[in-house]
């Protein structure tokens, strides 16, 4: 089965993702709690590590694979297929836990669901584009190391 790229879907998912991130930044209180800052620093490190492993210029904000894409399986991609999405989830998680408001939890849940839909769509395209992607899927988790 061939999955077709749909630019409107791709851009809608990216818009929704960044809109939810903006709403979370506006809604959740900033925290100077040491634990929160450590978790956020780890999240930023993982995101930057993923960008470095992917090599600048070879990743795309939209879920559509770039024409010259190559499968990256080193760095954080050794453990999970979407470390950049994981870093976003990890960054907001301690803030959501500290706030524990319905609005914060709802926005965080909506962001997680959006990222999950986006990565599922992206993976359907990657299977078509990269011959060894299904083997890579079998030995790595999607978004949360050792869990999911």
Task: Give an overview in words.
The radius of gyration is 16 Å and the shape is globular. The protein has helices at residues 7-27, 34-54, 83-99, 102-129, 133-139. It is mainly alpha-helical. The relative contact order is 0.18. Helices cover 64% and strands 0% of the residues. The chain contains five helices and no strands.
Query: What are the segments in which pLDDT stays under 50 over at least 5 consecutive residues?
Result: none
Question: Mean pLDDT, rounded to whole units?
Answer: 90
Oligomer: single chain
Q: What composes the largest sheet?
A: none
Helix and strand run:
HHHHH
What would you report as the Rg, rounded to the nearest angstrom?
Answer: 16 Å
The DSSP helix count reads 5
Distance between the termini: 25 Å
Number of strands: 0
Helix percentage: 55-70%
Class based on secondary structure composition and strand pairing: mainly alpha
Inertia-based shape: globular
Strand content: under 5%
List the helices and strands and how they pair.
Layout (H helix, E strand, L loop, with lengths): L6 H21 L6 H21 L28 H17 L2 H28 L3 H7 L9
Helix pairs in contact: 1-4, 2-3, 3-4
Please outline what is shown here:
The chain is mostly helical. Helix content is 64%, strand content 0%. Helix 1 runs antiparallel to helix 4 and helix 2 packs antiparallel against helix 3.
């Amino acid at each position: 089965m061939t999955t077709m790229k749909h630019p409107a879907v791709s851009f809608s998912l990216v818009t929704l993702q960044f809109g939810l991130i903006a709403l979370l930044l506006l809604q959740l209180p900033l925290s100077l709690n040491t634990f929160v800052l450590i978790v956020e620093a780890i999240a930023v490190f993982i995101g930057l590590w993923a960008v470095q492993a992917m090599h600048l210029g070879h990743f795309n904000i939209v879920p559509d694979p770039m024409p010259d894409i190559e499968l990256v399986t080193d760095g954080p991609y050794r453990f999970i297929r979407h470390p950049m999405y994981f870093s976003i989830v990890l960054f907001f998680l301690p803030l959501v836990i500290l706030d524990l408001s319905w609005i914060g939890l709802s926005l965080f849940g909506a962001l997680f669901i959006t990222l999950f839909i986006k990565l599922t769509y992206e993976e359907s395209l990657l299977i078509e584009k990269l011959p060894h992607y299904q083997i890579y899927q079998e030995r790595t988790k999607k978004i949360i190391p050792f869990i999911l």
